[in-house]
């Protein structure tokens, strides 16, 4: 099922031989059942261009014309089921109008909503503009809305389409982006994504990388906000916190964590009874999406632990068959970077992921791409010493997609030999698409930046973990 394509014919031949060899090798050495589809390390080697942030005067950072014009416009889901959208934007100098004018007819913006929150913050010697968050609720499903921000000659117009009502056979395509940053590679990732059929972005943490600058120069959050607008103003981006979003700087008097992240990026966390914007769940079309915080406590009895335990009980797979989890630090990763860093969370949550038959777990953090076979490692206890991942039909597929293109560059090398749980891995920048067809089938694909827009560098069909059982198919 794993597919591979190499950049040039010669390396394709070599990689095919490697694939055959690795299948044979795993099959004969361990007889592990997932050896049938093989484990593969791509031999594609991308050019080693320098990974630097785009300059402050880059075209994608342009401030929209006109005094105090709304900028950094982005939207996210605003409720539990997809009938609300939170519109966020920044006016640099004045509050101006806190209104969003919207409607289903481009000529007739019949509805008005007022921002429920306008805020500013300081970070070292940086002072933010006025950050507005406005919820548009009671929207119709599967409907295109047009919306306008600002007044008079600085008015700007955008649009978005609401998802279909939650239901088992609603096709829907999610985009996966991680560790994005703001380099030319980030720009290529966003550009390729914009041209894809993705309808909602799941961003698995690490946004602007402003923390790479002295005193975490938050002007780089503003450039980032303007950079992603060409996608994020038109479709929801769902946020997950990453380590570069923490921005705690006690040496220069910054004691708050996630200050910029939480002021700028909204999540509808209260709709799922979460006590923190850093972890939450939503339902959207055929999917139930759970976003976790790798950087908040998850030990037994912590708020995040208690919340997830209760949230998993609410999932109704007859309504939302696809159960998706996202987080920043991967639970399975065979890159030398951040190797085994997710073990603490894995030991707490993995058994639930298996018990509740999570379909797919997306993570970032590692600046490369990797897809696992369905594996679990939940048998270990102090007496049995059973600490190797094993093939497990009920276990999720784990995808590392921290390859958005940030200033830190790609993560190499990989652990050798490739662990048997790893199906495909490659250190290149790109994005992923989860194309949900119906209750039983979804196609996950990974698109590497160096290829043409439509080229798929890796893909796998996912058989829904709940509906694949033949007894359920007869219902
Ligand atoms: C970013 O990508 C867009 C779309 O390809 C392009 O028009 C723009 O010039 C790029 N900007 C930079 C700074 O690379
Ligand atoms: C604008 O939309 C509102 C509400 O849908 C409707 O009542 C009104 O007639 C529309 N106006 C025009 C000029 O189409
Ligand atoms: C903030 O501090 C940095 C470093 O000292 C300096 O370069 C920058 O000009 C200051 N910015 C403002 C707005 O004062
Ligand atoms: C969504 O709307 C489009 C066109 O308005 C229609 O063709 C499609 O069937 C609708 N989908 C759902 C799931 O209702
Ligand atoms: C440890 O694992 C073994 C084998 O799965 C099991 O029989 C035993 O009950 C476990 N011990 C504890 C303390 O959970
Ligand atoms: C679900 O989609 C897959 C892939 O397109 C297709 O083969 C299968 O027949 C579909 N199943 C149903 C029940 O429609």
UniProtKB/TrEMBL annotation:
Residues 173-369 form the Calcineurin-like phosphoesterase domain. Its EC number is 3.1.3.2. Keywords: Glycoprotein, Hydrolase, Iron, Metal-binding, Signal, Zinc. Residues 395-455 form the Purple acid phosphatase C-terminal domain. GO terms for molecular function: acid phosphatase activity; metal ion binding. Residues 1-31 form the signal peptide. It catalyses: a phosphate monoester + H2O = an alcohol + phosphate. Belongs to the metallophosphoesterase superfamily. Purple acid phosphatase family. This is Purple acid phosphatase.
